[in-house]
User: Fold this.
Amino acid sequence: MLLFRSEQHVERWCAQWNRPRGGTLALSQGWRLAQEWYRDRLSPEWRPKTVPEAQAALASIGLAGEFWKLAGAKEENPR
Assistant:
């Protein structure tokens, strides 16, 4: 994980290191993702999230698009 000051900083870093731009998220989204992902981790009833549950967790905080699509996730509206 890399932290950047702005969208322009991301673009400069990608250009400097000749890397494609991947997924980005705001710090607030990262915090929400951590809360969603780990909130019940110490519960005796805890179990790993299924792929659909994990995909729904990402979508619930606005992480959508090809980068955030998990392997094995089904398309909502297949064509």
About this structure: Residues 12 and 35 are 30 Å apart (CA to CA). The two ends are 34 Å apart (CA to CA). The chain has one domain: 7-68.
